[in-house]
Amino acid sequence: MKKLTSILLIISLVSIAPVPIAQAAVKVGGACNKAGATSTVSGVKYTCTKSSSKSVWKKTTITPAPVTPAPTVVSARCPTAAQTPNPSKTYSSVWEKYGLTKPTTVDDVIKKATDNFKCYTTVIVSPNQEIKFFAQAGVDETLITWVKEGSNFVATRFKYPKLPPTFSSIIAMDQTWLEATFITAGFPANRAKQVASNFCGGAPACGSAESNVWNYSKIKSSNSLVTDKAGNAQTPGHELFHAIQKILSGKNGGDAAGSRVPNWYTEGPAQFVGQQTSGALGFADYTTLSRPSMTRRYTNGNPINRTSNLSEIKANDKVVDPYAIGFAASEFLVAQVGVEKMVNVYGALGEGKTFDVAFKQGTGIELADFYSMFEEVRSTLGFAKS
Length: 386
Known about the structure:
Layout: H1 2-16, E1 38-41, E2 44-51, E3 54-59, H2 94-98, H3 106-121, E4 132-135, H4 141-157, E5 168-172, H5 175-184, H6 189-198, E6 205-207, E7 211-215, H7 216-221, H8 224-227, H9 229-233, H10 235-249, H11 264-280, H12 286-300, H13 304-307, H14 322-337, H15 339-350, H16 355-363, H17 367-381
Parallel strand pairs: 4-5, 5-7
Antiparallel strand pairs: 1-2, 2-3, 6-7
Helix pairs in contact: 3-14, 4-10, 4-11, 5-6, 10-11, 10-15, 11-12, 11-14, 12-14, 14-15, 14-17, 15-16
């Protein structure tokens, strides 16, 4: 009897045990069993939430993780509208050949060249370039500021192989201090002696692929920080750009005779970069101070520079003066094709190309065609032949 009672009790318990509620399809408002439970259906997350006396499914709001956009790949910095000529087509002018517009005013050239320079130098592309700075006691603080800021501006905004680790910008007053400072900067004694004995050949500033030097005695004696503010303010960018030219061109760079590269393309772009840098940093206004110094140099210089075509300006020998006319040609070139293409010519020279081939490879324009275009507009630019 006891055994029968136990069996009946077990059957009774089983029969009265609660039957689980069937799980409804997971959807908004659908019934669910346990508050806090979650389920993901077709990429949508639902949470079982108690509402009044029952639990129902509700969508869960998910805050997506921030997505970092992929960097934009730019094929060329500050591209221009210059086109590649069709060799099978006959063009009515050299301007049409490259899809360029002949400028009618100098203001248009100045604006385009300046805009292209600003565009190119907006981005710091070489942030790790380092320059050692040295200034002898007694050097004017204004010059020190110009040298530091102008050198760093060009060093970090142009793309080129890294400067040598000993690269130094040194402002000296005498040869003894200059020689000792070169050694301090890490140069061998024979190189230090060589640079000091030359001391820029009496010029206010000079440079190489390993250093830039300022002869402050020369600058001070002529009071040129006052009488030639534009000329001195542009030297840091000018000399640093010479270093970039030399690094890119290698052994195929320019020389005093212009036997490989005409000196208008060595000194002209350096003048342009130096003056634009000075203007960008607020040292000397490009339009009202720096550029007029170039037109004056051209007008007051040796007549040979005013009677010669640009293609004939090869030497840099104190008779042929490539600075002013080279500046005009460089400004015009940058207005047409931009800074990057101007710089690319030096890279092509470093590959062993001749200047005419390097010029076409870098700028996309045949050298003879560029010469033709420049001669057409040089009077508009303020550098007329006479």
